[in-house]
Amino acid sequence: MFPTARCSPLFFRLPTLLFRPRFHSTMAALIEEAKRAAAKVAVEKHYPQDARWVGIGSGTTIVYVVEAIKALGVDTSATKYVPTGYQSKQLIIGAGLTAVEFDTIPPGTIFDVAFDGADEVDEDLNCIKGGGACLFQEKIVAMQAKEFVCVADHRKLQPRLLSNWKTVPIEVAPIAAHRVLSKLKDIGSVNPFIRASASEKEGPLKTDQGFFIIDAPFPPLLIKSDIAAGKEGNGKDGVWAVQDLARKINEIAGVLEVGIFQGETGPQATAAGGIGGQRPVAAYFGMADGSVSVRKAE
Ligand SMILES: O=C[C@H](O)[C@H](O)[C@H](O)COP(=O)(O)O
């Protein structure tokens, strides 16, 4: 029997050492292709030919959404693209599209559609967002759109939030960060922490608003079917339902916004007399086999 990689002599480990980088780069390339495939289908299905206002999210997947919009070949000269942060704005401008900041849109403007990525999506289409430190502008842009469409790769497709992605990103005022940490512990988060910058000497990472991000671990979050099956989800036993935890975190003074997108979809909000919803109408996932899987809201 061959020794295990951990304790084997170099002779036995050589093939692993030689092939591992290539394996990882192949995996990374496949993930990028999965994002691109999902973006293409999402844009083909949801981008209106005569779009006037389009929300553009943040992250690595949204790059392929913009690529897919350009590939449609439609006239974009009259379309305004609303970014969700610095990276998003540069992406729009770099593609030759017109970026219009959220705070300059005319009152009453409703976006035709908003596209964005996610860190995790559950069976009810609730999402975790903020892994790349963007969540506040993403939420207000999604909530200004007739429909919010999520695009991701297969790693994000999970039965419950916090299955694979273990923490809830929360944007907080720097002065209140330690207060918020303490309150999060009170409601059952074990070892929440302030996200650091890539360079230690720069201290905590800053969002586009100049705020901090707290990453708060919780056990996987319950969805509607769990509650219907008799589970409580009120945090008493440390387990929360999606909407209860989102509400509880947003109630903490010092929190700007929580990276849980839940509640109404755009069409549900419109039917109720409002506008926009933070839960997507559909989420498109690029799968490992090259196909695209879709989850649609009820
Ligand atoms: O903070 C960043 C945003 O919420 C992103 O949409 C999310 O993290 C997904 O990013 P990516 O497409 O890079 O996986």
TrEMBL record:
Keywords: Isomerase. Pathway: Carbohydrate degradation; pentose phosphate pathway; D-ribose 5-phosphate from D-ribulose 5-phosphate (non-oxidative stage): step 1/1. GO terms for molecular function: ribose-5-phosphate isomerase activity. GO terms for biological process: D-ribose metabolic process; pentose-phosphate shunt, non-oxidative branch. InterPro entries: NagB/RpiA_transferase-like (IPR037171), Ribose5P_isomerase_type_A (IPR004788). GO terms for cellular component: cytoplasm. It catalyses: aldehydo-D-ribose 5-phosphate = D-ribulose 5-phosphate. Its EC number is 5.3.1.6. It comes from the Eukaryota. The keyword Isomerase applies. Transmembrane segments: none annotated. Belongs to the ribose 5-phosphate isomerase family. This is Ribose-5-phosphate isomerase. It comes from Penicillium salamii. The lineage of its organism: Eukaryota, Fungi, Dikarya, Ascomycota, Pezizomycotina.
